[in-house]
């Protein structure tokens, strides 16, 4: 059993893949690497080729392997004598074979020891560079969890527990990363301390609202505007003080645990470029929908609120469009809703949103919510499809959607009715795409 209208499913998948192709990590990286008249140009940063000593590729994130592959091929062709290699850390299953850059795999979203080993290897590589070396730092979503190098005195298990607690209590990415940065040896600009004489150029693919460099991957190469006081405000906001380890609580009380701030002399030789973002994927999908003769509902909102608020947004939008629009239409937005996990089930924010809308949207519709990286939570699915027949079909199979929702168990629900959306790793990561099609 699957969606009542297979053509809707095909068109939703086409819109999603069009959006993902627009933010492809390899293609994006290639656009920002050039050589011209004796200069190497990375984005808007130029450096004289004769002044280059060694070039290193370092980084972390779900999409970093595709970025590193393009960068490695570029340097091997254009500047083979200067290219020295490097190391990156990616999510398990997202690696690619590279010639001179070591590709390490680790766990996401909850860190593991492989991530810690990878972060240590990366830090050693940074510390082994020389003044005036060029470090091309490749960064994409997932780096915060994939580079879990705790501050001295904090066991990895304590930081893993902190990350899990923050995810489960519904903290947003800015709040999660504020604590990650202050409890890390490399995040929040601290990585630059290991090679302050090098030239740092960061190319990033954004997976955070606002595309702020200090939040993408917890900002290992930029100053951190958040403070220890901010960390304590977050801890108190969610009432999680008793769930954090004594080592973390003690660390957050030390003034020496503060991160370097924007404007610090430490960052005088750093350059940062965001290459791709969620709105790029949304714009590409909107353009495609128009080409498919679906007038698009003008909706510029970015949905990163609590999942109940995101659900209400879609419900009101659908009701308004049913009243005002007489033709088929599409509504496409980006975002990353937050979910407070209360049950023991298996799922992710996209599948949970789809399940909520299946039970709450009025009238006829087809909807897809999916992660642009190809994963939704700790599952092998990117998200799920729903339409007005989803709940009736499930009930015929003896499944009650409310019960699955209460357990945060959306994955088995969609697996049983055949409406999971499985893409495999996409090679990029700019949060989620949420897409609604309505045939009047």
Question: Can you walk through the features of this model?
Answer:
- The strands form three sheets. The protein has a six-stranded parallel sheet with strand order 6-5-4-7-8-9, with helices on both faces. A six-stranded mixed sheet has the order 10-11-15-12-13-14, with helices on both faces. The protein has a three-stranded antiparallel sheet with strand order 1-2-3.
- It has helices spanning 6-22, 25-31, 64-78, 113-127, 143-146, 156-169, 173-182, 228-237, 246-251, 278-291, 307-324, 349-360, 390-396, 401-406, 410-417, and strands spanning 33-36, 39-42, 45-48, 55-60, 83-91, 101-106, 134-139, 199-205, 270-276, 302-303, 329-335, 366-371, 383-387, 420-421, 432-438.
- The protein is globular.
- It contains 15 helices and 15 strands.
- Helix 1 (6-22) crosses helix 10 (278-291), helix 2 packs parallel to helix 3 and helix 11 packs across helix 12 (349-360).
- With 440 residues, the chain is α/β, with parallel strands linked by helices.
- It is 37% helix and 19% strand.
- The mean pLDDT is 93.
Mean pLDDT rating: 93
Strand order of the largest sheet: 6-5-4-7-8-9
Beta-strand percentage range:
15-25%
N-to-C terminal Cα separation, in Å?
A: 24 Å
Q: Sheet with the most strands?
A: 6 strands, parallel
Report the C-alpha radius of gyration, rounded: 22 Å
| Percent helix range | 25-40%
Low-confidence stretches: none
Order of helices and strands: HHEEEEHEEHEHHHEHHEHEHEHEEHHHEE
Molecular shape: globular
Structural class: alpha/beta
The number of helical runs is 15
Number-wise, the strands total 15
């Amino acid at each position: 059993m699957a969606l009542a209208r297979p053509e809707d499913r095909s068109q939703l998948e086409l819109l999603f893949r069009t959006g993902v192709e627009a933010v492809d990590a390899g293609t994006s990286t290639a656009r920002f690497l050039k050589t011209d008249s004796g200069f190497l140009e990375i984005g808007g940063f130029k450096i004289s080729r004769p002044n280059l000593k060694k070039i290193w590729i370092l980084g972390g994130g779900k999409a970093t392997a595709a970025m590193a592959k393009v960068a490695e091929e570029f340097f091997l062709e254009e500047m083979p004598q200067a290219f020295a290699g490097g190391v990156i850390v990616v999510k398990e299953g997202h690696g690619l074979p590279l010639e001179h850059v070591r590709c390490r795999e680790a766990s996401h979203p909850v860190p593991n020891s492989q991530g810690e080993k990878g972060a240590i290897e990366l830090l050693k590589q940074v510390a082994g560079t020389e003044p005036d070396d060029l470090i091309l730092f490749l960064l994409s979503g997932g780096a915060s969890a994939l580079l879990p190098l705790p501050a001295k005195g904090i066991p990895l298990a304590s930081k893993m527990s902190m990350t899990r607690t923050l995810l489960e209590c519904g903290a947003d990415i800015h709040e999660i990363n504020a604590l990650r940065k202050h409890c890390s040896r490399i995040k929040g600009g601290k990585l630059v301390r290991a090679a302050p004489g090098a030239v740092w150029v960061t190319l990033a693919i954004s997976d955070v609202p606002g595309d702020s460099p200090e939040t993408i991957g917890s900002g290992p190469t930029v100053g951190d505007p958040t403070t220890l006081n901010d960390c304590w405000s977050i801890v108190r906001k969610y009432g999680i003080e008793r769930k954090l380890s004594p080592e973390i609580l003690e660390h957050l009380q030390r003034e020496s645990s503060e991160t370097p701030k924007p404007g610090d002399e430490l960052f005088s030789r750093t350059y940062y470029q965001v290459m791709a973002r969620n709105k790029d994927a949304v714009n590409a999908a909107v353009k495609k929908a128009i080409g498919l003769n679906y007038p698009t509902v003008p909706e510029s909102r970015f949905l990163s609120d609590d999942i109940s608020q995101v659900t209400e947004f879609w419900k009101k939008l659908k009701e308004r469009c049913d009243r005002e629009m007489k033709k088929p239409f599409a509504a496409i937005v980006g975002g990353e809703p937050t979910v407070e996990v209360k049950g023991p089930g298996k799922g992710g924010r996209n599948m949970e949103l789809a399940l909520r809308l299946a039970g709450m949207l009025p009238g006829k519709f087809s909807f897809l919510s999916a992660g642009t990286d190809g994963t939704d939570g700790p599952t092998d699915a990117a998200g799920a499809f729903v339409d007005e027949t989803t709940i009736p079909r499930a009930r015929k199979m003896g499944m009650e959607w409310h019960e699955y929702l209460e357990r945060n168990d959306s994955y088995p629900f969609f697996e049983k009715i055949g409406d999971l959306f499985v893409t495999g790793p996409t090679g990029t990561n700019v949060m989620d795409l949420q897409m609604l099609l309505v045939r009047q």
